[in-house]
Design a protein that fits this description.
Blueprint lengths: L4 E8 L3 E7 L5 E8 L4 H15 L5 E8 L3 H8 L3 E2 L2 H12 L5 E5 L4 E7 L2 E8 L7 H11 L6 H6 L12 H13 L4 H19 L10 E4 L6 H11 L3 E2 L7 H17 L15 E7 L8 E7 L2 E6 L5 H9 L1
Parallel strand pairs: 1-4, 4-5, 6-9, 9-10
Antiparallel strand pairs: 1-2, 2-3, 6-7, 7-8, 11-12, 12-13
């Protein structure tokens, strides 16, 4: 590959949209962590323009990939060469950061996951997308309610002398329990430390139950910035936790690597449309398919009054159309 060849990875989630550009040696040269804010199309478009302005004219994107819950949407907008699920992307990224990694703990804005690797291959995983307890959005909400900057949340926990017991299985119960502890006079540090321990306890009893957690252990996702959660994991597991340099954008980093490898092997030219492509105006809308009892809610992407992609069905009827377009 040419020395000015770079790869782009995009991870579109419900809370954040992350963009990463890597060089031929898989070093991160630029990255963006943006709040999705319920408008992934607008945020992704603005993010592409921002990233394009940060890069020098010599940088040429020769491979692009997407991941995350909005990966199909992002792939249509940017012209992706690779579309991968979060498990694969995070595993590839962690393996690049810590080659012998055996366990990945990942907590994002709206979900959490654990990935078990053996001999560099992901052999088991579990995801929680149902309850918000333990996710980044829940921690953000509690930090705002306590009037504590989320950046300081972990340091408060580390100053605790006697963490209180918080019910962490449910976001609603956890919040009401915290309010009760405040009303009974417990200090802020002990309440926050109790919350960190509760969230880790919930994660390990649900996602990690029955799984063989071996070292090295990598913790990634936005919540990895919370040193209180990291300390609670290390106490509960009795093992060292590694935080990779680009912990908050590991999904985007992983899919950038996957895109780079695919283009290198195939020798094909990238489908990437460019950072400043403004020709197409994309809009999303849904339709309910009534062809079978599943009654699937199918997502359509429309550009200039033409439907360019579908996804979201259970039987593959609409997904086949999406895969042909993408």
């Amino acid at each position: 590959m040419h020395e000015n060849s770079y790869s782009l990875g995009i991870d579109v989630g419900s809370v954040s949209t992350n963009l990463v550009v890597i060089d031929n040696e898989c070093n991160v040269v630029e990255k963006l962590y943006l709040r999705t804010g319920g408008n992934p199309i607008d945020v992704l478009t603005k993010g592409l323009i921002m990233l394009g302005n940060l890069l020098t004219p010599e940088v040429k994107i020769t491979a692009a990939g997407t991941t995350g819950s909005g990966r199909q949407l992002a792939s249509v907008i940017i012209g992706a060469d690779v579309i991968k699920n979060e498990i694969t992307a995070h595993a590839v990224a962690a393996r690049k950061a810590i080659p012998n990694v055996q366990t990945i703990l990942e907590i994002g804005g709206q979900d959490s996951k654990i990935i078990i690797l053996r001999n560099g291959v992901a052999c088991d995983f579990a995801m929680n997308t149902v309850c918000a307890a333990g996710t980044g959005s829940f921690l953000d909400r509690q930090a705002a309610r306590l009037d504590v900057p989320i950046e300081d949340f972990g340091s408060y926990a580390l100053r605790s002398k006697s963490p209180v017991r918080i019910a962490g299985r449910c976001a609603v119960f956890a919040e009401s329990d915290m309010i009760h502890k405040q009303q009974t006079g417990h200090c802020m540090e002990d309440i926050i430390a109790g919350l960190c321990e509760a969230l880790v306890r919930n994660y390990l009893s649900n996602l990690a139950k029955g799984k063989d957690i071996r070292e090295p252990i990598v913790f990634q996702g936005g919540v990895a910035a919370n040193i209180g959660i990291v300390a609670a994991f290390e106490r509960s597991l009795g093992k060292k936790i590694f935080i990779p340099e680009n912990y908050e954008v590991m999904g985007a980093y992983g899919v950038a690597i996957l895109a780079k490898d695919k283009i290198a092997k195939s020798g094909k030219i990238t489908c990437f449309k460019g950072f400043h492509n403004k020709i197409d105006n994309f809009a999303a809308q849904s339709l309910e398919c009534k062809d079978c009892p599943n009654m699937c809610e199918v997502i359509q992407i429309i550009s200039r009054n033409v439907t360019v992609a579908h996804w979201g069905d259970k039987c593959g009827k609409w997904g086949d159309v999406s895969s042909e377009v993408i």
